[in-house]
Design a protein that fits this description.
The structure is a homodimer of 345-residue chains. Chain A has twelve helices and 13 strands. The first copy, chain A, is an alpha/beta fold.
């Protein structure tokens, strides 16, 4: 029998009440602590609530799983984990293997920091987009960078989980993560992250010394966020109730603002460049063809497609808009090339 | 003093243990039940754990908030809510108002169905994209439809929350939600939803009679999903550990498969159409210009831009790919129009 039990986010006191009985009746309780550190005082309380054997489980022991599964074949075994037990995919896999091994499994869900921190910051959970993770050994942050980009253009908030290595007692500093993203911006130049991007640093959520500090990246350069765990949240479109709550629940170094206004969709960035460029190229070439009737249709078409492109963009049909402006540009450039003019692409 | 306390997802037994003390010491406990129904037996247990006054709170009472805030000015007041207290934005707003009113607030987080159901289905939480909601009175489902589209093309899973109206005791049937999406597909034709889309219906998550049934929409047409609450999950890209877990944790009417393969990005759909079309148009026009040197550059450029378009798409630069194929098409069509041929756009 194998129980997957969540501890919640505030130490032993946040454990679901039904789990207390499960702990006291278990033959073995494993506590995994590789997803977040657990305080000594909480460790003592967990041990006291355990009548059977208590064991600390390192990452490899849970990933390997054989000891836990072997014991669960004959005994009541509990795997106790910070937050909700199934946020860690390792636990889902272990449950799969247990059921395949004909071991009965039970789950007790608990508060996850992922849902809790959003509410603690005053943000709306239904506006959170895909989560990204930043690890110190990552060669490049283009993956999290584009997760943020895609979230921001949809107005979504992005949660950036930062590396935590229990064995090395290492936690990635939020400032290092943000510097990495600023570096990535230099190569990708999609206007996703700049020193004036508004960010929230949520630290030790659920604990007494929880802190929520937000502001422009440039304003937080010298801020000491204290002990881990830390999470960075890049807000997307902010409803006024979200800005209000953020100001009241946390410490805002700057007035909260909408990050989405700076970051334009690639399609909009392109249209801003190409529509005036094609119009100008068209005006330049028109006089050269004024006596050639067979080319009038091409000139007219080019003008129509520029207008269509603008209309498609307005309608949210971004891809068709780009296709249209590209097409108009091609029509115009063919005429330019035929007259020995430089193409405008 | 105002406490926001989550009940978790399994009735009274899932309440965090620290909350028991808070309940027993409170002067007034409000139980809101507009986000999910709460069983009578749980209601009794909550009442028994409350030494002070117990009151049921309808949606309007929480939204209005004045009674709760007035009482919290002088008394210890608890607002107890299903799941995690701050998934409902109403509670965030109430907390904001309380703090503005100089009322001390406290939060006890608990398991949310949003995180729990993902783990119960064996899916990876970090792959969940933006959530969508489907209400019966919605005139059109284009908003949730495009949330699914955007999630699917990124490989993300989509959680579709279905309407629950406590006062009318109404819950939207998952089959009605899916039929609405199939209808929307007819108008939008982005290949997002079809009778062969793989969907998961997660019902009564956290309760004894929890059920997870999945399969193609067409296979679930006559399935009775039982009592609410139900949530529809449209999986995106499925890791094999996710498919395995889904099969083992739930009941799969069909073998789980990847929905992302059918739904192509608009940019890819376009490229599949335009690349061969432009190539063909180019081949057709080439012989007509074989004696006109001044047009050779245009023909060569067109060919290069078709190749570039393919390369950009491979590199994930979708917008530049579309711009390039549009441009190549424009170059070719200018030459076609000049010779009196039909344009190919």
């Amino acid at each position: 029998m194998l129980w997957f039990v969540g501890l919640g986010i505030s130490g032993f006191k946040s454990i679901p009440s039904e789990a207390l009985d499960v702990l006291s009746k278990a033959d073995i309780v494993y506590l995994e602590q590789f997803t977040s550190p657990i305080a000594k005082s909480d460790l003592t309380k967990i041990k006291n609530a355990t009548k059977g054997e208590f064991r600390l489980a390192k990452r490899w022991l849970v990933e390997d799983g054989s000891e836990i599964l072997k014991n669960a074949k004959k005994k009541k075994v509990v795997l106790l984990a910070y937050g909700d037990p199934y946020i860690a995919t390792t636990h889902i896999e272990l449950r799969t293997r247990a059921i395949e091994d004909k071991i009965k499994t039970y789950s007790i869900h608990a508060a996850s920091s992922l849902t809790s921190m959003i509410g603690e910051c005053g943000l709306h959970f239904y506006k959170v987009g895909r989560i990204a993770t930043i690890m110190s050994e990552m060669k490049s942050l283009t993956t999290p960078y584009y997760v943020i980009y895609k979230n921001i253009i949809e107005g979504n908030h992005t949660v950036l989980l930062l590396e935590y290595n229990q064995d090395k007692d290492f936690f990635l500093d939020p400032k290092d993560a943000l510097n990495g993203l600023l570096e990535t911006e230099k190569g990708q130049i999609r206007n996703v992250i700049s020193p004036s991007t508004y960010v929230i640093i949520a630290s030790r959520i659920g604990f007494k010394d929880q802190s929520i500090i937000s502001g422009k990246i440039s304003s937080l350069k010298k801020t000491d966020f204290g002990k881990p765990p830390h999470t960075v949240i890049i807000p997307g479109r902010l409803h006024f109730t979200e800005s209000d709550a953020l100001k009241i629940f946390g410490q805002c170094v700057d007035e909260p603002f909408d990050n989405t206004e700076k970051t334009e969709k690639i399609s909009i960035q392109m249209m801003k460049k190409y529509v005036p460029m094609v119009r100008e190229a068209l005006e330049e070439v028109e006089p050269l063809y004024k006596d050639q009737k067979e080319f009038q249709g091409i000139l007219e078409n080019a003008e129509l497609y520029v207008k269509d492109a603008e209309k498609f963009l307005e309608d949210g049909q971004d891809e068709v808009a780009i296709l249209s402006i590209g097409y108009a540009d091609g029509l115009v450039d063919a005429l330019r090339l035929a007259k020995g003019l430089e193409p405008k692409m």
